Fold this sequence. Notes:
alpha+beta; Jelly Rolls; 2 domains; eight-stranded antiparallel sheet; 18 strands; globular; membrane
Amino acid sequence: MKPSSFAPGAAIALVAALVGIVSLNQRRLPLHTLVELTGQPRPTPLAPRPSPASTAGGEISTPLASAPPMEREPEVPCVDLSPDCTAWQRGGECGFDPAYMHAHCAKSCGSCARADFDGARASAAATAAAATAAAAAAAAASVAGGGARCRDKAASCPLWAASGECDVNPGYMKLSCAKSCGSCDWADFSRRCRADPNATLAVPAGAIGELFRAIDAGALSRYKPRVVSRPPQPWAVVFDEFISAEHADEIVSVASSEEGRLFTPSQGTGGLDDDGQLIPTLSSYRTSSTRWCDGGCLNESAVRELRERVADATGVPDANHEYPQLLRYTQSQYYKEHSDYIPAHRDMPCGPRVYTFFVYMSDVEEGGNTSFPQLGLSVEPKKGRAVLWPSVLDAAPRDIDERTMHIANPVLSGIKYSVNFWIHQHDFKANHAIGCTG
């Protein structure tokens, strides 16, 4: 769901490796989607590796060894300006983004002989060298008082900081590039992400029951609701016509578009690292594919309308919602029994997940039901249908209700598209922006 706490280069390398071992019917993995997957800023190029080239006055000159002076233009060195160039080239970036790649990754793209990119390569190399020097000076001045935890997690941090990424993407940069951003105080999760014990709950005790009783009494009738579980069991409701088939098709189109075409293996969580970030894991427990809808996707008209509808139906503002999680299940894919509640969220500023609002975006030929074993409930996928259930107890809405553990059963035929909305007690998006949601 969330942008990863991986360093961008490491995450991109990981995804590049996954291309060779995971079959997802995907096209190539271009740089902008790899960056979108990790949630990190587009890496700024590193300075070129040592070469005969030298810089003077912003221009690149290459002295000729064992040769007399010649009347010709100086040769532009053929280098990669980022350690990630090879991974990007393997992902098809040389063709997808030639202006950037042929200037910054000439060696990997095999474009050293292309004179039309000489000027761009020279400019990129000079900019990288200048940024390296400036960032190194800034980093040296920022470490004082940071202690052993004040460090950069990526080799490219000084250059990203020099290019302004500390302000553009503070949630990642000030934590993972603390040394370069001069944000060493962020390294201590307990200081950075201290929850307010007096913060007002979006869903106080008793509010879950109030919402579902109102729905049962006829509220939201335009969405054709059916209460399928009620006390003494947890509440659950199915909306048979939450969105139109056309609206669902628009969402799938957004998820599959050039802007958001990248579905990646869905991840679980493996606890917290020493910076308070959830550790993403891949396992056989969950085999679906995911695409997080943030950035431009979040403001697509079809997505924006759906976000507003979910906020209106639940009475919880959009700020408390995680970024929509677009899911794709192909034949035989599944998610075994689990709860959407993440214990680590309980004491974070965002608070725990209170509700799951799950919307089906496609019909499925066979299989793919969402089942709740402890409730004896199974919901069949249907385009435009939605299911709403709580992950917490009505009387104690910060504590897990294990009875709503559920299963995404294997798709036997066809493809299942859906969207998850996970809704928290407190503002998720603002806390996510400063690295306080795990």
